[in-house]
Amino acid sequence: MKESLMDVLCCPMDKSELELEVDDRADDEEVLAGTLVCTECGERYPIEDGIPNLLPPDMRDDVPA
Amino acid sequence: MKESLMDVLCCPMDKSELELEVDDRADDEEVLAGTLVCTECGERYPIEDGIPNLLPPDMRDDVPA
Amino acid sequence: MSVREEFDAWAADGRDKGMEDRHWHTAKHALARMPVEPGDVVLDLGCGSGYAGRALKEADDAGRVYGLDGSPEMARNAREYTEDEDVGFVVGDFGSLPFATDSVDHVWSMEAFYYASDPHETLREVRRVLKPGGSFYCAVNYYEENVHSHGWQDSISVEMTRWSHDEYREAFRDAGLYVAEQDSIPDRDIEIPDADAFPTENWETREEMVERYREYGTLLTVGVAP
Amino acid sequence: MSVREEFDAWAADGRDKGMEDRHWHTAKHALARMPVEPGDVVLDLGCGSGYAGRALKEADDAGRVYGLDGSPEMARNAREYTEDEDVGFVVGDFGSLPFATDSVDHVWSMEAFYYASDPHETLREVRRVLKPGGSFYCAVNYYEENVHSHGWQDSISVEMTRWSHDEYREAFRDAGLYVAEQDSIPDRDIEIPDADAFPTENWETREEMVERYREYGTLLTVGVAP
Ligand SMILES: Nc1ncnc2c1ncn2[C@@H]1O[C@H](CSCC[C@H](N)C(=O)O)[C@@H](O)[C@H]1O
Ligand SMILES: Nc1ncnc2c1ncn2[C@@H]1O[C@H](CSCC[C@H](N)C(=O)O)[C@@H](O)[C@H]1O
């Protein structure tokens, strides 16, 4: 994901802002791995292979990865 | 024109309500001849052959009938 | 010449019916898209023969349809073509609509809008008369990208406005309308002769005629009142 | 089975590409109508292979297009089909969109909306994320009047909502969206064999196949956020 996506994303649960923690980048702009953390409820959403997974937590975990 | 048209018509100039003066009717509903009078500016708009002429006065009179 | 003189002459010539036949090819597709509900009040700007109102009344149970035209002869003809008492006609001008603010559910206009002496003023008037959420379906064959229409002004005394797709969208927004859709609707119904019939009276080549009708067709812009 | 299990399997099978090919026949016409301006942010709900976003980006200079899908495998494939960094993908659910209020200019969805576990909730979410004047283009082949689609639920584990034209309009309005347009877009591209080829594997008669594609095609409902 490109960092500019942060402008429009929010926590799917309480619609609050998210904070980006980067683990791996492809270049200046593109985030490949990391975590999005809700600034309100603290829920953590993983970014894998450049794609943030913002399913509600109960749906995210319904199938073993 | 059917009288229910009065619900939506207004004076083209000042958008005020119009009052209907009937000279001739086809039946209970249909007005064939008469005048629409602006309740605000007093301008008179003719109804002929069932069709009200609500052109602004200067355009209505630009060609001899 | 005034709108009244020009189009009274057309009506007397029977050109109202000729336009109805030709315009129906694309107008029917645009009309079919209008989200008209039973009981809705629809206004047809520059109604000509009044076919659009008749069609909406039959297809969608529109409650009442009013055709407005600047030509008394057009309105008179249109009134004769229908028996339906909930289809009415009014003589009026695009520049100062005789309809109350927030009184109309949808406005339709085919091949007429660009005759407005000030099209921006007309858009503001349309917005004024529409109820919140009401739509304006504005269909034109005369527009900038349709190069085959550029010569039309030469044979009409009333001044015509030739906007592009972009200019239509921008003008709608300037008047406070949301733009919900813009589309070119091809005319698939008009008969196009085989190549060896060209040049015809109106067309140098078959390609030009195909482009005019099958590709450019009618430009539809749909605005929604906030 | 969950959306994720069902559609991860489809993505692994290559069905994302198969749908892209078939859905393009009608989707391209609906996409062409969207009044997207340069710089606009567009959201594609249930993006599958992501073709709609790619097309909008190329045709209209949309600024950024985001595809949301509940299937991580769909999103992964879609990301591989484009190099454009302004086309992004997000895994998420129709029931709780991870997009900020008033953040998106237009929302697109093709053959996906009816999988929402609560479609009314999804419409409210769409309305929430749209900026005022933004539009929701909702295209479906599975709907009440299309009788040929009624059997589809039997082969899909995820529960599907089958609304009629009227129900779509009503639900849009209930969610606070204005309805600007509703249309059936025919599929003129699919090849229909000669009569003597019938019955085929999927169709008893040629008439049925013609009705399904050329007549019913895709139901498009366009909503506009106030
Ligand atoms: N300024 C104006 N005010 C009101 N009507 C106008 C107008 N300028 C042109 N018109 C009307 O617009 C019509 C254009 S011809 C199109 C007629 C019809 N909509 C059709 O599709 O066939 C004519 O009937 C003309 O009288
Ligand atoms: N509740 C839900 N939330 C998010 N995505 C969903 C969903 N239900 C279904 N989907 C997604 O919607 C898509 C439907 S298939 C259609 C894909 C694409 N729009 C096309 O036209 O080809 C699948 O990719 C599926 O994973």
Automatic annotation (TrEMBL), chains A, B:
Annotated source species: Halorubellus litoreus
Lineage of origin: Archaea, Methanobacteriati, Methanobacteriota, Stenosarchaea group, Halobacteria
Signal peptide positions on this chain: none
Cross-referenced Pfam families: Trm112p
Taxonomy, superkingdom: Archaea
Protein name as annotated: Methytransferase partner Trm112
TrEMBL record, chains C, D:
Entry's Gene Ontology molecular function annotations: methyltransferase activity
InterPro entries on file: Methyltransf_11 (IPR013216), SAM-dependent_MTases_sf (IPR029063)
SUPFAM superfamilies noted in UniProt: S-adenosyl-L-methionine-dependent methyltransferases
Gene3D superfamilies: Vaccinia Virus protein VP39
Enzyme nomenclature, EC number: 2.1.1.-
Any single Pfam family the record assigns to this protein: Methyltransf_11
Domain Methyltransferase type: 43-138
UniProtKB keywords: Methyltransferase, Transferase
One Gene Ontology term from the biological process aspect of the record: methylation
Full protein name: Class I SAM-dependent methyltransferase
